[in-house]
Amino acid sequence: MVTKRISGKIVRNWFVVGCLALFASAPFATEDSNQEINALISQGKYGEALAAIDARQAAGESQPSLELLKGAVLVRSGELDQAMEVFQALAKDHQNDAAIFNNIGVIHAEKGEMDKARGAFETALAISPEYEQALYNLGDVYAELACRTYGKIQNPNSGIIPGFCESSAVTQTANMAASRADYTADPKAMDGAQQAVFDAVQGWKERWASQDIDAYLDSYAANYAQQGLTREAWANKRKQALKRPQWIRIELDNPEVAVTGNQATVRFVQKYTASNYQDVVVKQLTLNQDEGGWKIVRERVL
After folding, report:
1. Which residues does 116 contact at the CB level (< 8 Å), separation at least 6?
2. How do residues 233-281 score in pLDDT, each as one tens digit?
């Protein structure tokens, strides 16, 4: 049986699974009048953010940006049904906004409704064919559906299950670098090896946030590849992605580190906020140690 790969990408039960990124490129969310609410959201103060939105709406404000922010807060608070109502209402009034349909797809995926998620992402792409986040999300939906089919195979060791289905219950059990009992969650309790890995991940985060592209890419192993791309193609896509935002802020919460020989696994809640996008995901990094230190060989949203 294949575990949920996509739902994790959204609100995050623990690195909850999946590769969906929420609230991408929503033009309303960057209005100056909403900076205070955005700040509350980025700090995880969802109750205060929702109260601020409700107060402004009660005072007569009805701009779409407030509804978009309200939907974002509801998703992060786990109120998926209420959030869906908000985004579906927005979709009726803003039928050409791809980001809204992307968010609807994310909520469907979080609820395990993959066919509905696929339809929403396809709608987003019909509106904006080059909408990168919707492309990634649709690809992850197709991968999840494929892995569910492969998960029905009685003999999972037959060698025909593709690598992107490694999150299945069987292969995940076989390939985990360490059992959950081997993880250390408190940075103060980490041993020397775990601290070195944690420092490498912190460095990766800081290079990403500072948009130091070359240093950021150097955090990855020379043979790193993702989503069927060569490392060169992946690196070019990342370079373009890092150049888009005017600024980036990243927080890593609840880190857990496990080290087995020259391989390490790090799990954490990643809070990403940029000038054009924000999301909260549970992420897992796999790192190998080489002469250049600890390098990322795999990155995925659980």
Report:
1. 105, 108
2. 889 888 988 998 899 999 988 888 888 888 999 988 888 888 877 777 7
For residue 118, what are the contacts with CB-CB under 8 A and spacing of at least 6?
105, 138, 141, 142, 145
Q: CATH code at 144?
A: 1.25.40.10
Assess whether 141 and 187 both reside in one domain: no
Do the beta carbons of residue 288 and residue 23 sit within 8 Å?
Answer: no
Residues in the chain: 302
Measured CA to CA, the distance from residue 116 to residue 237 in angstroms comes to 28
Count the domains in the chain: 2
Q: CA 213 to CA 191: how far, in whole Å?
A: 30
Kindly state whether residue 89 falls inside one of the protein's structural domains: yes
Residue listed under structure tokens 């987003």: 124
In angstroms, the Cα distances linking 243 to 65, 137, 150, 211, 236 are: 25, 21, 38, 7, 11
Q: How confident is the model at residue 69 (pLDDT cuts 50, 70, 90)?
A: confident
- Please indicate, yes or no, if residue 35 is contained in any of the structural domains: yes
The CA dihedral of 20, 21, 25, 30, to the nearest 10 degrees, is 150
Report the C-alpha gap between 234 and 209 in whole angstroms: 19
Query: What are the residues whose beta carbons fall under 8 Å from the beta carbon of 79, sequence distance 6 or more?
Result: none
Query: Whole-prediction pTM value?
Result: 0.52
What domain range includes position 62? Answer: 7-148
